[in-house]
Design a protein that fits this description.
alpha+beta, Isoleucyl-tRNA Synthetase, domain 2, Isoleucyl-tRNA Synthetase, Domain 1, 7-stranded mixed sheet, 4-stranded parallel sheet, 36% helix, 21% strand, globular, RNA-binding
Length: 837
RNA sequence: GCCGGCGUGGUGAAACAGGUAGACGCACCGGACUCAAAAUCCGGCGGGGGCAACCCCAUGUCGGUUCGACUCCGACCGCCGGCACCA
């Protein structure tokens, strides 16, 4: 072997070796325990970035480690290949999205292969391949038949730049998640998946996901946004009609002083029809609609409203209260109508103040601070608007007052009693509402899965028969980025015949949201390629044991994937409830204090790293600089450090190779003494440390630190006997095995250089000998009153009496405590003694 | 505003179960090798004081519990992330 470490000479060689021998290809085998390790698959943008390297390096350590631990490890890779950038490339460079995507996949695959990850490439997936997206269509049809996919006209989020609709999850702060264009509302016919049917289960099963970060679960729970309350009908005065509202604060029903309707509420125009208010109210509504949802849902905007001239009757106390239209009420949530309780809701309070509406206190704090809301404070209707010294609404819990038969109850109890009362009297019913909306999946784009639906003038909406799948995305298309869906302009695609009546039919031209593709790809990996069966393979491999990816998918992808898993379970395709047992959300890669991005010009190109230092160094640095869940601060010098470490290890093997070539590294601890014994001890301490650090939350940084320590120890080790050399060989072999999940190429190379014939990736992970780990002598710290005052070496497991005596005998300690009364001596075995005076 | 996370040397970070604060790496300083430099190797490296043995201070701030607190409790400050007229 050469004296110098030259990664270029070895890395490609071993990548080829692994590939040719199919070392990482797996088959289901019920006699071996399985482990499914998955990293979020990439969008084929053309180049990998450091974020990819980090995620895949983390996943690869886990996969290689579990393999060496004896698991049958599924570790696949694929391409999230549909999506907008391909169309943008088509518009800008005139290249077909398919060609652009395939080219990108080819070059990214090369880059990823150059990093030596242990993927089973036989299972590679490309979501833009008809073989893949036909299953999107197949599942869609199954969902359609169950009523889980449906079409409706509604107000949807529209990104003018992407010229397409977006799901709620894909709008951040009123902007498109991809291009940050401000989203507007548009009325369109759209396909939806009925994720709201699963709202309760998606929420409830969060409790099962004990291997997920709390942060992600909180975000999912917030997004689902469950709230429990009642729907109540209020009789409209002088009309047969009733107005239905939703509230979670039925305990404040006696404090209702007006009603607020969303401007879009259909009843508004009826109420004001042919009344003196009509013109004014309709003008207000027009204005509110023009404000747009973005502005109206931002908390800063002033609350505005208008009186409709009509009244409703409070079913509990018979009060007549005015109906207003208010810009802050949303049609999409609850019933689009709200009962207003200004004393106990800040928004209603502000509204009442502005328009001089009465405020009526019905809850008082039972442990009152200084405020108008104490027991001796104002009661009943206390003035209008700002009168009465109110500074704000009291939204907390307390005791109900002036609430008829419910007066004196605690809010908690009052809520229950009033809810039951309302149901008993037929005024309304208990109701659970969710913030979660159905998932709008129609996209007016080309590069996605065609929605397999036909429109027949006679038969209406007809799904494409399963045996006619896939509906192929036509290749002869002109992509301009203008004028709606490109598919709508392709006559040959549009024209079809109705499977029912054989008459002329028209195809749906929208494609599916690309999040559909990624909602079940982890299941697709379980099939042997081209051999899709929804039975044995899946039940063996699923669920994913360890899923790894960025926090940015905390709601989007991870919620959709959970939803799909449950739908596929209910379709009888799989048997699990949740797709991902453990989830690791790794931190961002940071440079100069900001996330690496092209626009900031602070990207580090992984290609350059691999060229200059090799894949092992790139991997090692990503894993050593920070624990996986934290952000990783980029450091050029840090990379140098990782490279130096590998060089040191290489030099060590090259220096000793001849002397240890024919030796047997197998050693019995009992035969050892002196330096051989202490090196052996260090070996086993390192095995323990590395194993524990991997098992405990994948803290690879500290695992690597201990491997560096071991190498440092070896570096200063001077063997004096054959036994010493045998221990030395053992130390090197162990280091190589422990390092191999992190830096597989150099480990493999040196492993073979030492005469081994089989891949190190297939070696068994070493176990450690507890006996060998124990030190003969331990350092005992001496404290006086908790302050460090000395250190002594004592035989391990010395008894308390010996520790005390030795400590007191120490010259320095004896001086410190001379003439003082010893109150107490605390001994922590093998660690510390604290003398309290 | 609400929820969650995080604050440790010059720096990335360790400290797993309340028991030596700063492992390991980087940077820096000194030395060896060299005509010289790079690479490599050896040594030092939280701050302050002392000739020295040693002493004092130090994990965002202030307080508490404890023989002993980076770790537990309370209040506050700062940074990051999520949610936010959801009735």
């Amino acid at each position: 072997m050469s004296e110098r470490y030259d990664p270029k000479k070895i890395e490609e060689k071993w990548q080829g070796y692994w590939q040719e021998r199919g070392i990482f290809e797996v088959k289901e085998d019920p006699s071996i325990p399985k482990y499914y390790c998955l990293e979020m698959f990439p969008y084929p943008s053309g180049n990998i970035h450091m974020g990819h390297v980090r995620t895949y390096a983390i996943g690869d350590v886990i996969a290689r480690y579990k393999r060496m631990k004896g698991f049958n490890v599924l570790h696949p890779m694929g391409w999230d290949a549909f999506g907008m950038p391909a169309e943008n490339a088509a518009i800008e460079h005139g290249v077909h999205p398919a060609n652009w995507t395939d080219r990108n996949i080819a070059s990214m695959k090369n880059q990823i292969k150059g990093l030596g990850f242990s993927y089973d490439w036989k299972r590679e997936i490309n979501t833009s391949a008809p073989d893949y997206y036909r299953w999107n269509q197949w599942i869609f049809i199954k969902m359609f038949k169950k009523g889980l996919a449906y079409k409706r006209r509604s107000s949807v989020n529209w990104c003018g730049s992407c010229e397409t609709v977006l799901a709620n999850e894909q709008v951040n702060d009123g902007r498109c998640w991809r291009c940050e264009t401000e989203v507007i509302q548009k009325e369109l016919e759209q396909w939806f998946f009925k994720i709201t049917d699963y709202a309760e289960e998606l929420l409830r099963d969060c409790d099962q996901l004990t291997g997920w970060p709390e942060k992600v679960l909180t975000m999912q729970k917030n997004w689902i946004g469950k709230s429990e309350g009642v729907e109540i009908d209020f009789q409209i005065k002088g009309s047969e009609k009733k107005l239905r509202i939703f509230t979670t604060r039925q305990d404040t029903l006696y404090g209702v002083t007006f009603m607020s309707l969303a401007p879009e509420h259909p009843i508004v125009s009826e109420l004001v029809k042919e009344t003196p208010c009509e013109k004014e109210v309709m003008n207000f509504i027009e204005r509110a609609k023009r404000q747009g949802i973005l502005l109206r849902t931002s908390a800063e905007i002033e609350k505005e409203g208008i009186f409709t001239g009509t009244y409703v009757i409070n079913p509990l106390n018979g009060d007549e209260v005015p109906i207003w239209v208010a810009n802050f009420v949303l049609m999409e949530y609850g019933t689009g109508a709200v009962m207003a309780v200004p004393a106990h809701d800040q928004r209603d309070f502000e509204f009442a103040k502005k328009y001089g509406l009465p405020i009526r206190v019905v809850i008082v704090q039972d442990n009152p601070p200084l405020s108008p809301f104490n027991n001796g404070g104002p009661r009943g209707i206390i003035g209008k608007g700002g009168e009465g010294g109110f500074e704000g609404a009291y939204e907390g819990e307390g005791i109900m007052v002036d609430s008829g038969p419910f007066t004196g109850l605690r809010t908690e109890e009052g809520k229950k009693r009033i809810a039951s009362f309302i149901e008993k009297e037929g005024f309304g019913e208990k109701k659970v509402n969710y913030r979660l909306r159905d998932w709008g999946i129609s996209r007016q784009r080309y590069w996605g899965t065609p929605i397999p639906i036909l429109y027949c003038d006679r038969c209406g909406v007809v799904p494409v028969p399963e045996n006619e799948l896939p509906v192929i995305l036509p290749m002869d298309v002109e992509i301009t980025g203008k004028g709606g869906s490109p598919l709508a302009r392709i006559e040959s695609f549009l024209r079809a015949s109705c499977p029912k009546c054989k008459g002329a039919a028209r195809r749906e031209t929208d494609t599916m949201d690309t999040f559909v593709d990624s909602s079940w790809y982890f299941i697709a990996y379980c099939f042997d390629k081209g051999n899709i069966d929804f039975k044995s393979a899946i039940s063996y491999w699923m669920p994913v044991n360890q899923y790894i990816g960025g926090i940015e998918h905390a709601v989007l992808h991870l919620l959709y994937a959970r939803f799909f898993t449950k739908v596929m379970r209910d379709l009888g395709l799989i048997k699990i409830d949740e797709p991902f047992t453990d989830l690791l959300t790794q931190g961002m890669v940071i440079k100069d204090g900001a996330k690496m991005s092209k626009s900031k010009g602070n990207v580090v190109d992984p290609n350059y790293l691999v060229e200059t230092y090799g894949a092992d160094t790139a991997r090692l640095f990503s894993l050593f600089a920070a624990p996986p869940e934290k952000d990783l601060e980029w450091s050029d010098q840090g990379v140098e450090g990782a490279y130096r470490f590998l060089g040191k290890l290489w030099g060590l093997v090259s220096k000793y190779k001849e002397r240890i070539d024919d030796l047997d590294g197998g050693i019995e601890f009992k035969e050892l003494e002196g330096k051989g014994k202490s090196l052996y001890r260090k070996i086993h301490q390192t095995i323990k440390k590395v194993t524990n650090d991997i098992e405990r939350d994948f803290h690879f940084n500290t695992a690597l630190a201990s491997l560096m320590e071991l190498v440092n120890v070896m570096n200063s080790f001077e063997p004096e006997s054959d036994t010493d050399l045998r221990v030395f060989r053992n130390a090197i072999e162990t280091t190589l095995i422990l390092l191999s999940p992190f830096a597989p190429h150099i480990s493999e190379e040196l492993w073979h250089a030492l005469g081994h014939g089989e891949s190190i990736a297939l070696t068994k992970w070493p176990s450690f000998d507890e006996e060998a780990i124990k030190e003969d002598e331990v350092l005992v710290v001496i404290q006086v009153c908790g302050k460090l005052r000395g250190k002594i070496y004592l035989p391990a497991n010395s008894d308390d009496r010996l520790i005390k005596e030795s400590a007191l005998k120490e010259r320095k300690i004896a001086e410190l405590i001379r003439g003082k009364e010893i109150k107490k001596i605390i001994v922590v075995k093998n660690k510390l003694v604290n003398i309290v005076i």
